[in-house]
Amino acid sequence: xxxxxxxxxxxxxxxxxxxxxxxxxxxxxxxxxxxxxxxxxxxxxxxxxxxxxxxxxxxxxxxxxxxxxxxxxxxxxxxxxxxxxxxxxxxxxxxxxxxxxxxxxxxxxxxxxxxxxxxxxxxxxxxxxxxxxxxxxxxxxxxxxxxxxxxxxxxxxxxxxxxxxxxxxxxxxxxxxx
Length: 178
Known about the structure:
The chain is an alpha+beta fold. The chain contains 4 helices and 8 strands; from the N terminus they run E-H-E-E-E-E-E-E-H-H-E-H. Strands 1, 2, 3, 4, 5, 6, 7 and 8 form an 8-stranded antiparallel sheet that branches. Strand 5 (71-79) and strand 6 (82-90) form a beta hairpin. The longest helix is centred in the last third of the chain and has 20 residues, at 119-138. 38% of the residues are buried.
């Protein structure tokens, strides 16, 4: 059973500032609840450690498409099955709409129960609010990566079919079992 979440927020910073901050993946624990660590392995790959509905999860993800000031799209390559994109749209001078679209597969009884209670959806909304507070209070990004990633296809918003190789992990880290 796949769950889709789509949330957006307006932030009072220029599109380049919002986008630049979002490319600083290792900073995500500062504004994403439950995310303990994001380790960037290279320009396209990251390792995530998070706690979702009380269950520790680890996964690797790959950036599939990245267009400066417009979009970052990803899919899990191992562990927790998830994929999606974040879109950035200027909405006037110094304002940006940040739109998160993601799909995930809740695994196990705890996550399936949490899914029925819309925990991930509420967490995504709260995380966008925290991102807004974080970037607006700073007024500037902590860094930037302005490269483009394009695997030769126009993705739109990738769904869990792009994360099919992750096969889920039921709260166990397959990476640590290797």
